[in-house]
Design the sequence.
């Protein structure tokens, strides 16, 4: 009965979605209607969006319920769950499959739409109605896709006693929260897309529009940042390969929208401050969500073989491709028709804050393009010729890496350049101590690292440069050293939260650079066969193998390796890498034994038993690898600070509201 309620709620949501689309469409476009009638029809979108989110929320809760109680009469539960699974994995199993993940996707779409309805009271009536209509159209397309091709509530006539279980590598706490965060980031960009289409429909885009779209883009960027980070962390400790990023096509599918969203955030700043880059900002809003749709297609089309892929059904992949073609093609067609009518903004010199932000956009979008080519080229080549190739780290290191390094070098200059026309020499003078910190970072790396890749110290220096540049901006705005301590403290306290948010985000980027360079250049690796009592050394640690012990988990058996770790004759700790065999499905996984410290991770993986005795063991020392994930928390916090700034939060400030008044509802 619960499953039928969930199914019925989905069907009702389709009807409500149609009403949410038709109300603004008829009210805004049908000639001959009185102003009051137009207003009433467009106002339908607000309650409709809330009702639609409630209905799909009921459907999602119904699916969650049948998973929690292990109702194996539901085909989706039977195929992806097992009664012996811990509760957290029965819940996360809801989105650990194609059908459930699509329902979560649609839930995110309508929740974001309802959020615009609730928090968008400051928006002009026509713009708000059109945004909600476009958002509903996106939700409707995926609702129909679920109902006709991916229904999660299908019943089995003769209900089995037990389910088949969930893929063991997905039975992990990080995978319980990674997909919801990632989807929230993907789908959050649909709001930016809806704002762009609504603005093109009305043919009016200004600084107020940029102010309205920035908080939604920022929220999506924050969630996408966390989602990608948690996925990287999961792959690091769960897959047992010792790395944090593999340039897997599905990893790339999440990185590309993040790059586009980062560019969109910076472009919207120029549009808000100077009313420039209007056409480019609208295009970025379209492309960012288009890349999210492409990610949905890659994961669900069966064209990829990946631990991240949900489906191997080309028929459903074709439907997702059709949805993507409809929205992307329709949006770009509307953009082509309307772009020429958009008025250009203010003129600025190449050396200016606008120029720095344009350079930021160029580097980010070109980097995104290189990732797109590296991801799609093997698929296109296989489709055309049947030849199978892989594009791996060498390509991305040679193309993506230099672009990011150039961006990081230019990053600290932007805040020190004036709008319209800046002074590069004066900005360099204010960054002198940041140069000094970067030079110190290079020297220290050379002293500690000794022999190694000669570019590694430069990479660490660039990371230090970005961090020091972020603090240099704060120091400059607070007049540290040029004013009294009390005045500087007052100025620090009075700085806008968005300024602090930018500083934290840039600091996170600098820390990530240091972590990536240290991990890539100075990682130690050893693969050996160890017998009981034997010892080996890596990165100053001595590891003694004490053998293997069996252990029973809630739904798996495992062999646990015992490694005593010492240094200088003193025992420090014990590491326990293991090999697990799950009950259902019968699948094995490797669980890494990891010790984290301030200077890096000691990472161990237990391999197979050898015929001649002993076990294969892989050992790594990954210096400063934790910086890679700590930095994303710092970047998220920076985004949160900016989001709470009175000028950027969803409830627009008074100045933006006054700008919106002259824009009448059509």
Sequence:
């Amino acid at each position: 009965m619960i499953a039928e309620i969930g199914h019925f709620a989905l069907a009702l949501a389709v009807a409500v979605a149609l009403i949410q689309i038709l109300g603004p469409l008829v009210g805004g476009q049908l000639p001959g209607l009185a102003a009051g009638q137009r207003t009433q029809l467009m106002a339908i979108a607000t309650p409709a969006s809330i009702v639609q989110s409630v209905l799909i929320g009921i459907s999602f809760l119904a699916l969650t319920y049948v998973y929690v109680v292990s109702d194996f009469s539901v085909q989706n539960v039977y195929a992806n769950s097992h009664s012996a699974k811990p509760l957290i994995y029965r819940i996360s199993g809801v989105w650990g499959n194609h059908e459930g993940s699509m329902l979560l996707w649609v839930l995110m779409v309508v929740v974001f739409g309802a959020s615009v309805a609730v928090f968008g009271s400051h928006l002009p009536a026509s713009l708000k109605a059109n945004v909600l209509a476009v958002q509903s159209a996106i939700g409707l397309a995926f609702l129909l896709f679920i109902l006709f091709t991916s229904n999660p509530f299908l019943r089995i006539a003769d209900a089995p006693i037990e389910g088949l279980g969930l893929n063991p590598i997905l039975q992990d706490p990080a995978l319980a929260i990674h997909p919801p965060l990632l989807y929230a980031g993907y789908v959050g960009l649909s709001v930016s897309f809806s704002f762009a289409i609504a603005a093109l429909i009305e043919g009016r885009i200004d600084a107020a529009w940029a102010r309205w779209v920035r908080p939604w883009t920022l929220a999506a960027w924050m969630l996408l940042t966390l989602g990608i980070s948690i996925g990287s962390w999961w792959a690091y400790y769960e897959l047992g390969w010792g790395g944090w990023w593999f340039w897997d096509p599905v990893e790339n599918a999440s990185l590309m929208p993040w790059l586009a969203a980062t560019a969109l955030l910076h472009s919207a700043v120029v549009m808000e401050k100077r009313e420039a880059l209007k056409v480019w900002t609208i295009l970025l809003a379209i492309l960012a969500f288009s890349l999210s749709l492409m990610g949905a297609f890659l994961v669900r089309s069966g064209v990829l073989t990946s631990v991240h892929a949900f489906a191997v059904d080309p028929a459903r992949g074709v439907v997702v491709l059709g949805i993507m073609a409809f929205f992307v093609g329709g949006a770009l067609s509307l953009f082509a028709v309307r772009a020429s009518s958009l008025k250009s903004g203010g003129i600025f010199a190449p050396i200016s804050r606008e120029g720095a932000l344009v350079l930021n956009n160029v580097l980010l979008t070109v980097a995104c393009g290189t990732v797109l080519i590296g991801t799609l080229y093997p698929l296109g080549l296989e489709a055309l010729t049947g030849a199978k190739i892989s594009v791996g780290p060498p390509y991305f290191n040679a193309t993506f890496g230099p672009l990011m390094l150039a961006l990081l070098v230019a990053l600290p200059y932007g805040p020190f350049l004036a709008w319209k026309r800046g002074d590069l020499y004066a900005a360099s003078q204010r960054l002198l101590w940041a140069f000094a910190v970067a030079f110190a970072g290079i020297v220290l790396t050379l002293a500690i690292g000794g022999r190694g890749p000669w570019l590694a110290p430069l990479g660490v220096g660039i990371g230090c440069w970005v961090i020091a540049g972020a603090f240099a901006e704060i120091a400059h705005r607070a007049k540290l050293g040029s004013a009294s301590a009390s005045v500087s403290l007052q100025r620090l306290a009075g700085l806008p939260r968005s300024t602090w948010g930018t500083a934290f985000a840039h600091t996170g980027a600098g820390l990530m650079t240091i972590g990536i360079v240290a991990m890539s250049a100075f990682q130690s690796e050893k693969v050996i066969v160890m017998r009981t009592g034997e010892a080996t050394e890596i990165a100053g640690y001595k590891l003694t193998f004490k053998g293997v012990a069996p252990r029973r988990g809630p739904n798996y058996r495992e062999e646990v390796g015992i490694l005593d770790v010492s240094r200088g004759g003193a025992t420090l700790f014990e590491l326990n890498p293991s090999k697990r065999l799950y009950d259902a499905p019968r699948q094995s996984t490797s669980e890494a034994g990891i010790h984290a410290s301030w200077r890096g991770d000691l990472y161990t993986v237990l391999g197979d038993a050898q015929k001649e005795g002993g076990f294969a063991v892989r050992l790594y020392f990954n210096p400063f690898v934790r910086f890679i994930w700590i930095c994303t928390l710092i970047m998220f916090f920076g985004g949160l600070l900016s989001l709470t700034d009175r000028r950027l939060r969803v409830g627009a400030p008074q100045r933006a509201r006054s700008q919106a008044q002259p824009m009448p509802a059509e």
Notes: Confidence is low (pLDDT under 50) at residues 650-666. The chain is about 60% helix and 10% strand.
